[in-house]
Please model this.
Amino acid sequence: QVQVVDSGGGLVQAGGSLRLSCTASGLTHDDDHMGWFRQAPGKEREGVSCISRSGDITYYNDFVKGRFTISRDNAKNTMYLQMNNLEPDDTAMYYCASKRGMFSCLPDVYDYWGQGTQVTVSS
Model:
């Protein structure tokens, strides 16, 4: 059984940085991919960034390119999202998730989800 736990959110001023962490258990297959997603009040959940099991494939949504960096350490069963130059529009609940099979960053195809960690960026 796969379990994921996300953490690292908080309140930060615009231009600041945060690093989100996601610890996962039960990811033992070469096609266990992971991703970060976010959902703001009144909006649909959207993909932020995703990474393949090996780390050789990454995806970034256009709104975070150049500001966020995704990485994973399989030895520690942990994935990270370094978020720099945060903007008020980045305010949302951020979720870590995992899936098995074809690489994707569409939230509907992810199977296992963390509880979410709130990121709030003040202007």
Summary: The two ends are 41 Å apart (CA to CA). The mean pLDDT is 95. The longest strand covers residues 92-100.
